[in-house]
Amino acid sequence: MSCPFSPMKPLNFWKKIANNVLCFFNNKNYSKDKTHLEAILRTTIDSIITINEYGIIQSCNFATIKMFGYSEKELIGQNINILQPEPFHAEHDTYIKNYLKTGIKTILDTRRETIAIKKTGEPFPIDLFVTEMFIKNQRFFLGIIRDVSERRDSLLAMEKNLRTELELKSKDDFLTMMSHELRTPLHSIMGFTQYLLEELDGPINDLQRGSLNQISISGQHLLGLINGLLELSKIQAHQESVKTEICNLAAILETAIDSLTPLAQQKNLLIKKTITYGHCNIKANNPQIYQIFLNLLSNAIKFTDHGYIMVCLSFDQLKAKITIQDTGIGIDQSQLAKIFIPFEYIFSNLDPKGTSTGLGLAITRKLIEIYNGKLTVTSKKGEGSTFTIELPLSIEPAFSKDT
Amino acid sequence: MENKPFILIVEDTKTHSDLVIKILTHFGYKTILKETGKDAIDFCEKELPNLVLLDISLPDMNGAEVAAIFKKKPSFSNIPIIAVSVHSKASIQETFVCQSFDDYISKPFTIQELMDKVRHYLG
Fold this sequence. Notes:
The complex is a heterodimer. Chain A has 11 helices and 12 strands. By secondary structure, chain A is of the alpha+beta class. Chain A has 3 domains: 10-147, PAS domain (Beta-Lactamase, 2-Layer Sandwich); 150-241, Orthogonal Bundle (Helix Hairpins); 243-403, 2-Layer Sandwich (Heat Shock Protein 90). Chain A is elongated and about 110 Å long. Chain B has one domain (6-122): 3-Layer(aba) Sandwich (Rossmann fold), CATH 3.40.50.2300. At the A-B interface, helix 6 of A face helix 1 of B.
């Protein structure tokens, strides 16, 4: 069975319709088949138009009226070129005359893509099949027209997607290359600095040590910036290719806390935690979730000199809520909105020790937003800050049992 | 007769190999530097190192390819190959550890990190 919409055999399909119509007009059992064939003409989604040798419209079906926006009355008796935009509009009469004169079929019996025009003046792409027929020795031309706007639109959309993908890819390639080119010399700067600091080439004095430490710290900072910028640009550009799995938020949070506990201990800070365990699962990229927690926890530790960090995780069926509260330096109310903007951190002097890249919170918020979550902050200068993460939980069942 | 363990460094970034050679020499290892995958493979036809530090992005070949060629030789089966790369640990772990590499180290590494790896394999 041939599918009428199969793109593989469009020409056959057109011919079949044309034959049906020709049969309709030529058939001796005209009245018997009339109802049947009229129904076909009425219901087909393709426009079917007949014109005479002078290009004057003789008949059209219901699809024609729908497609072009003219009534049947407006069309019958008109030149077919009212349905054609320039240059076809002006040249159509010539097409017919040339054929009648030479008998060479340039358009007849082939399917072609062209443009038609609606009553509103809006042009649209069509597939056109024209054939010739004779009724009582009089010559007519039969045109079957299919509106292919949808097909064109989907092709255009595909093309656009492809272009966007290519653009993203070249942007991504550029960033990867750039960061590699920037990091390679930086690695050497830092490596040799460390080599000297460890006195592998012989003893250094305290002044030299101080200078080398400065080089090392600045190098670390620059490396952090390069990595941060790369990451920030990559997060959205490349999210589709990031591997996701069912992640247990409590387990990841625990890991993040464990890895930062030594840092907190160095500063004599206690990390208190209230974690509700269970199926607080999210379909996500595990390292990204880990990074969200790690960024916020290390910030809390960085900006707190006395007191504690308090971490809470609770969840219901829909979402998990994680709060990270510190007793650190806090943020002035007027500055709160700025902390998520890249580099604003630094310009606004929010980081008195100058150790931040100014990108961490921007990255963290972007990561949370990827998973349709929310990151909010409340803070009081001198008393501490509370960062709250809300993440919608995955409704899919967990694949593995939680530990 | 020299008994110093002998490390083959395959690395095309001069400043990086300079540093690694400096460190390894300081700690008493003998090193040889090859800057392309092909040179490294040719070299190992004649002589076998005790350990290979193999950069994964070389000008002529991918480090994984070089490692695969090494590991095909029976004589190489006991020689550890450490992948060196600027990629994140996670991505190296995924791509290489289960293949021809015995271990990996990601740049930038500290002197301590490098020496820990080297001592682990060479004692």
